[in-house]
Amino acid sequence: MAVEMAVTLGSLRLKNPVMLASGCCGYGLDMESYLDLNRLGGACLKGLSVAGSEGNPPPRIWETQGGMINAIGLQNVGTRRFIEEKAPRLRGYDTAFVANFYGHTVEEYVEAARQLDAEPCLAALEMNISCPNIQEGGIHFGTDPAMVHAVTKACREVMRKPLWVKLSPNASDVVAVARAAEEAGADALTCINTMPAMAIDVERREFRIWNKIGGLSGPALRPIAIRIVYQVSRAVKIPVVGIGGVATANDAIEFLLAGAKAVQVGTALFADPQCPYSILDGIEAYCERHGFLSVEALIGQIKDPGPRPGCHE
Amino acid sequence: MGVGPYTVRSNVRRGPYATITVEGRVEPSKPGQFYMVRGDWGADPLLGRPLSILSDDPSQGVLRFLLKIFGEGSRRLHELEPGQKVHALGPLGRPFPRGAAERGGKPALVGGGVGVPPLVYLAEAFAREGRSFSFLQGARTKDDLVCLEELAALGVQPEVTTEDGSEGERGLVTAPLKRAIEMGAPVVYACGPEGMLKAVAALCRGRVPSYLSLEARMACGYGVCLGCVVPVVRDGVRSYERVCQEGPVFEGEVVEWP
Question: Does residue B218 carry a pLDDT above 90?
C-alpha cells in the first residue's frame, strides 16, 4: 500500500508534510551536504529584513532541559542580497522554499514582502510577527490582534504569493490573533514561534545570553505548540502548519492529529541534520499501520470527546 | 561527512578528563577540525558537544577525542562505556593553515587543557612529515596536563609550564612562547582557555602570525544556527563570524576579545 504523502495548503502543494523551520536551515544551501532538499516538503529560510542585521553579540545560545534558548538577533543578509546571491542557487530545486521575513514597522514588513514576492524561487512567504513594533513603543506585533490584522492586510495587498503568518505563543489570546490574521487575508498560519525565556548562571550571577531574554525552542516547547495548533486549527478555516519541538515521527504525527497540515523541523536539525528522513519514514509507516491511505486523511483525526472545562474552543 | 552512528571502543578517564575512542565510518580530517558528539540518550541533553579531533584513522574507522567535564553534556559523555552508541557529526570546521610553517624555523604549538588535543593532532602531522617544531603545554597544576602519553608516543618532549609550579616551569605558557618566538618560530598555533589565547595573540601581534582555535557554545556545529559567533575585524570592518564554519581556527590578529 503506497501512502499518498502530499498535502495541500491552499493553492500550494507540498510533496510531503515535512519542512525545515526558519532559522534552523540557513538559506537552505547550508543543508546541502546533509540533506537532499528535494525529498522534503519544503524549507522555511532564515528570517529576512530589508536592511539585514548583523545580529546580537555572543553569547547567543544556551541549552536548557529538552530545549535551548536563542537570541541570535535575526542576523540576516537582507532581502536584496538574498535575492541576488542566494536565490539563484535555489531555483534548481523541486521543493517549496518559503521566505521568512520581518520588520520593525508596517512599512518595513510591506517592503520586504514586496521584494520577496517577486522572487521566482519562493513558493510562499512566512511573516514573523514576534518582533517589536518601534512605532508602538516596542510592543510585539504578535501579541496584539489589531496590529497583526494591520500588518497582515498591508502585506497581503502588495503580494501575489501565499502569505503565512507565524504566530507567537506569547499572546494572551492566540486564537484571537489567529482569527485576526485570517480575516486580514493570511493564507496559512504557522504555529508557533519560540517562547520568550531566560536562564541565569547562578555562580557568576550573570544572564546566560547577551540579550537576557531569548526564545525557547525544542522538545520542551512541544506540548504548548500542540495545544495551540489544536485550538487554532479549530478556530480558522485556513491551514495550520505545526512547529515546536518536532524531532521524531511521533512528534510530527502528534501535530498532524492535532490539526496541522504540515510540520516544520527546527531545533532537532541541530542535533541531527538528517532527522527529517526518519520523520518522513515514520509518518509513512504510521499511516500504513493505521490504514490511512494518505497523510491528508490523518490530519485532525484525534478522537475528540467534545468540550471540557477550561478548554475553551 | 560522517553523521554516525559510532560505537565506543574505550573510554579512559582521569579525573574530569576522558579520552574516548569510537569506531565507525570515519572521513579523512585535518588537524584543527572537530566533531559534534552526543550520546544516544534521546532529547536531554539535546545538542551535541563540539570536540576537537585528537587523532583519527579513517582506514581503521577510528576516532579519538579528549574531553573535560564542564556541564551536563560533557558529564554524560564522560560516563560513556565501551559498546555504547554515540552520534558524531564531522569532521567540521577549517583546520590549522599550514602555509606559514613552510617558511623554515620551528613552528610553536601551544596548548592548554582540552585545547591540547588539536595540537597533538597537528604535532602528529608535522612528525610524520619530519618537520621539527616546539610543543608548549600550560596548565594550572600538573593534574591538568593532558595527552602526555600521546606526545611521548610521537617522540615529542613538551615544554611544560604550570601556574603552581607542580610540574615543569612555574608560570604561564607565554614565557616559553616568548623564547620560542625569539628563537625564530615562523608561526604559532594555539588552542586553550580564552585567557591563554588572548595572551598568545597579544604576544604574537606584529611579531609572528598566530592561528588560534577558539571554543564556543554551539547548537549545530555546521553553520546554520548562528549561535557560536565571535566578533572579528578584517580590514577595519567588524563582523560576526561563526566559530564552526569560518573557524574554529582564526588568525590571532582578527579576533576581537571581550
Answer: yes
Domain B99-213 has CATH 3.40.50.720: no
Average pLDDT estimate for A8-35: 95
Instruction: Tell me which chain A residues have a C-beta less than 8 angstroms from the C-beta of B73.
Output: 63
What residues contact B239, with CB distance under 8 A and at least 6 apart? A54, B231, B232
B116 in contact with chain A, both atoms CB, cutoff 8 A: no
B231 neighbourhood in chain A, CB within 8 Å: 57-58
**CATH number of the domain enclosing A124:** 3.20.20.70
pLDDT single digits (tens) B173-194: 999 999 999 999 999 999 999 9
Residue of B49, B76, B225, B232 to mutate, interface with A, max A Cβ within 10 Å: B225
For residue B2, list chain A residues with Cβ-Cβ distance below 8 A. Answer: none
Cβ distance of A63 and B73 shorter than 8 Å: yes
pLDDT at A29 over 70: yes
The boundaries of the domain holding residue A294 are 7-58+73-196+218-298
Q: Which numeric CATH code is attached to B6-92? A: 2.40.30.10
CATH 1.10.3470 describes domain B216-258: no
Give me the residue spans of the domains in chain B: 6-92, 99-213, 216-258
What is the distance between the alpha carbons of residues B172 and B164, in angstroms, rounded to a whole number?
Answer: 10
The DSSP string of chain B is -B---EEEEEEEEETTEEEEEEES------TT-EEEEEES-TTSS-S-EEEEEEEEETTTTEEEEEEE--SHHHHHHHT--TT-EEEEEEEESB----GGGGGSS--EEEEEGGGHHHHHHHHHHHHHTT---EEEEEESSGGG---HHHHHHTT--PEEEETTSSSSEES-THHHHHHHHHTT-S-EEEES-HHHHHHHHHHHTTTS-EEEE-----SSSSSSS--SEEEEEETTEEEEEETTTT-BEEETTTBPP-
H or E segment and range at residue A147: helix A145-157
Please indicate whether, in this complex, the C-beta atoms of B47 and A31 are within 8 angstroms of each other: no
| DSSP letter assigned to residue A83 | I
Residue A131 a catalytic site member: yes
Mean local confidence (pLDDT), A143-147: 94
Grid coordinates 537582507 are at which residue?
A78
A-chain residues within 8 Å CB-CB of B239? 54
What average pLDDT score do residues B237-248 get?
A: 97
Q: How far apart are CA B47 and CA A68, in angstroms?
A: 9
**Same fold yes or no, B6-92 and B216-258:** no
Which chain A residues touch B if contact means CB-CB below 8 Å?
23-26, 30-31, 33-34, 54-55, 57-63, 65-68, 70, 72, 75, 218-219, 247, 267, 269-274
pLDDT at B228 over 80: yes
What would the mean pLDDT of A126-154 be, rounded to a whole number? 90
pLDDT computed for residue B2 by the predictor: 59
Cis preceding-peptide flag for B176 (omega within 30 of 0): no
Q: What count of residues does chain A have?
A: 313
